[in-house]
Amino acid sequence: MWQTKKLNEVCDIQSGLWKGKKEPYTKALVLRNTNFTASGVFDYSNVVELEVEAKQLATREVLKNDIILEKSGGGDKTPVGRVCIHDKESEIPFSFSNFTARIRVLDSKELNAEFLHKFLYFLYISGKTEPMQRHSTGIRNLQLTQYKDIDVPLPPLAEQERIVAKLDAAFAEIDRAIISSASKETEIQKLKTSLLRSSLNGDDIMWKKVKISDVCQIQPKKAQVKLKLKDSDEVSFMPMKDLGIQTIYPKSNQIKKLEKVYSSYTYFEDNDILLAKITPCFENGKLGIASNLINGVGFGSSEYIVLRCSEEVIPQYIYFCLNQPNFRIIGENQMSGAVGHKRVPIEYVENTEIYLPPIADQERIVAKLDAANTEFRNANEAIAKSKVNYLALKSAILSQELKSNEAA
What we know:
- The strands form seven sheets. A four-stranded antiparallel β-sheet has the order 2-9-5-7. It has a four-stranded antiparallel β-sheet with strand order 14-21-18-19.
- The model has no long low-confidence stretch (mean pLDDT 90).
- The chain has helices at residues 7-10, 54-58, 113-125, 144-148, 157-200, 212-215, 258-261, 281-284, 315-322, 325-333, 346-351, 359-407; strands at residues 3-6, 11-15, 25-31, 48-53, 67-70, 72-73, 83-85, 94-96, 100-105, 133-136, 139-142, 151-154, 208-211, 216-218, 234-238, 254-257, 266-269, 273-276, 287-289, 297-300, 304-309, 353-356.
- The protein has twelve helices and 22 strands.
- It is of the alpha+beta class and 408 residues long.
- β10 and β11 (139-142) form a beta hairpin.
């Protein structure tokens, strides 16, 4: 049997970098959640360069063979716990964001960093880190204390190196297939973005340019629901996890008494548009149109911005306007608040300009985009299924190699 030690016995584990507010500052290339890939290696194509506090960077530089752990982020259906190994050098030092942690092997003669990375990667893709997670609003957090207590197998160093070489060879073809799938997803997203832009950016003289606040009521006052319902009447309840991404009509599966939700939650009605304003839900595109609500009324997360359309515009048209990537990119740059709790300002949504065609044109555009969305969704679902199968194959190979060698 192989010897085992706790992760924190064989590694130095350091939480990520905050930019800091004290001079002197220096430049750093900061690895973030967006740089993680499904293959366990970093995508360095969009690493951000930041001015950071030199004192912070002094203890948080990333060196070759350091492993970076995603400890916060994810989503309703996406666990955190991804691990990537750093293998790039640069004149500007690399560091890592506050949503991540650095894992550095203490003794390379005892533990091979690439072997450790393969082991931690297996824990993630096999779902073994799921019980170590907690949820907050739209974010998952890995309990680092539990993670540090993981038992790490320690076969002889030569055996670790042999396992790494064997797994690298086995994974090479799988990784090429995963990269191909990611490329297909990118192409689908480009097609979708192009279609939205060409459909919604009017070149017809009958189309007028308006602010969203000109055609939508933002955050309707909840007092009006008291004119329709009694405190004992039932309404639908929709927490943030029920508001989907690329799902135009979210499903509300909970029912509550009006008196239980009136004070603390956001009010909306059938055909109102719900937009998540908090990070990372806003950036991820959590957006939908309320429908089939109990008594026509719903309540939900305080992190919703609610838009109620006037007679000039149909909700589905506004939905597609807000579903454009550029709307989220610009909005992300205007967010404010504490890290992990940043919110897009309501004023940004109110002042966003759109082209407004006549109702008949809106209906034609929505029908076209609905049909295209179905095709895009079917294609993405097929790609997602293939990626799950690739990861399952990796997990099976890793499990077989680790267990067969441990028992030897």
